[in-house]
Specification:
alpha/beta; three-stranded parallel β-sheet; 4 helices; about 30% helix
Length: about 110
């Protein structure tokens, strides 16, 4: 694929990596899909669970993937794992990227 993908689909949620795997499938077919995982920290809801070679025990909840040897695996840039407290920051970045202000959205 020579052109960057557009932002066509946003999967919100990632229980058992369903959102991640569907976005990955769509991206392979040229659809600009992203996965937004908010406040779900179960090990099976992380891209590492599906795509990295895990050779050591992993905490079921709230794992720190940076402490494990994942053989160089890095999360793809279209996977967005955030906590609910970060939603306003993400909203601000998206609005800035779109050239809009939050007050414009709320008033109109």
């Amino acid at each position: 694929m020579t052109q960057p993908l557009s932002f066509d689909v946003l999967h919100i949620g990632n229980i058992v990596n369903n959102g991640y795997l569907h976005a990955k499938y769509l991206r392979r077919r040229g659809v600009g899909a992203h996965n937004l995982n908010v406040d779900y920290t179960h090990c099976q809801g992380a891209p590492e669970w599906t795509d990295a070679l895990i050779k050591e025990p992993v905490a079921e909840w709230d794992q720190d993937w940076s402490l494990l040897d994942l053989g160089g695996y890095q999360r793809p840039p279209w996977y967005h794992g955030i906590m609910i407290a970060d939603v306003p920051k993400v909203e601000a970045v998206i609005l800035q990227r779109e050239g809009k202000k939050l007050s414009e959205l709320k008033s109109g």
